[in-house]
# Entry
Amino acid sequence: MEAPHSPAPATALELTVNSPGQMGELGRRLAKILRPGDLVMLTGELGAGKTTLTRGLGEGLGVRGAVTSPTFVIARVHPSLGDGPPLVHVDAYRLGGGLDEMEDLDLDVSLPDSVIVVEWGDGKVEDLSEDRLHVLIHRAVGDTTDEVREVTLRGIGARWAGADLTVLSA
# Structure
């Protein structure tokens, strides 16, 4: 029989979110563990809650401006109202050319000083950083009016190797 040991920090976490309010709260809790240079990739279908999560994150970071979907401007910068990092919110949905189009946004210049959140970034932003937090948001199977979401957070790279994501489930 194996001796009990303290669990390693969880670099992946699965949560059930029951409402938009809880999704915003998850964003506020996430803001507490993010730091300048972090890249967060959000994956989920339309209406899954990506922007709601980002809005909560912006509140938690204490940034200026209403966090809304940047679909038509592609990227929106929200400066910090305090001493925290600015939030760069990107919607890569209309970008088809992968990293070339992403490079036109100069995100690599903003990355060291900002928290960058990219919606629809799969296959487009992975080369920006070896370290990223990938957040997958799935609607509950069945009734599309249901607000229940299954959220999987997975830290990738050395930045997240020692991070304990279980603090997000508090």
Notes: DSSP finds five helices and seven strands in the chain.
